[in-house]
Design brief:
The protein has helices at residues 6-10, 16-22, 31-36, 38-46, 60-71; strands at 78-79, 83-88, 92-100, 107-115, 119-127, 139-147, 153-158, 161-164. 23% of the residues lie in helices and 33% in strands. Helix 4 packs antiparallel against helix 5.
């Protein structure tokens, strides 16, 4: 069974209404806050939270997934580092991230993290394997493509910070 990962499995279960409801105490979308409050969150989930008027209780499968994450490694994704290129043709824009993974067996991808009317921000995520793999870290070339008619400014967030590509 796969190890649950905060950004892939846990954070998406916290709905915007859940986050808004708890914001006066802590941010359910913040990894460190959820780790610090994990026992309290689990107790509240077992007691039928959130209430029906605020989205309703989680299904049992979600509660069990949260428990597995809390009682396990509390795994999360890491931010990678890469060199980026931005290229545009008449039909498509391609963002390429090229680098080397930090360890053997890692996977990575560019993910659209947020967008506004004027900007798009991607994140370079790296997921390390559940158990260490021997060998040499692999080079990578990851691409994200979208229509050339989208003229918004493009930013990428990685382990070195946020940079504008276009």
């Amino acid at each position: 069974m796969r190890t649950p990962v905060f950004e892939l499995h846990i954070r998406p279960m916290f709905r915007a209404i859940d986050r808004d409801h708890m914001m006066s105490s802590f941010d359910l979308w913040d990894y460190d806050a959820v780790v610090a409050e994990a026992d309290d969150i689990q107790d509240r989930l077992k007691d039928g939270m959130p209430p029906v008027g605020h989205g309703g209780p989680w299904p049992d499968e979600w509660i069990q997934l949260f428990r597995r994450w809390k009682d396990g490694a509390r795994k999360r994704l890491e931010l990678g580092t890469a060199a980026y290129t931005f290229s545009q043709t008449t039909t498509a824009v391609t963002i390429t991230a090229a680098g080397t993974f930090p360890a053997a067996g890692c996977m990575g991808w560019l993910q659209l993290d947020s967008e506004t009317d004027t900007t798009k921000t991607y994140v370079l995520y790296v997921e390390e394997p559940d158990t260490p793999v021997s060998g040499t870290p692999a080079p990578f070339s990851l691409k994200e493509r979208y229509r050339a008619t989208d003229t918004r400014s493009v930013f990428v967030r990685d382990a070195t910070g946020v940079r504008q590509l276009h």
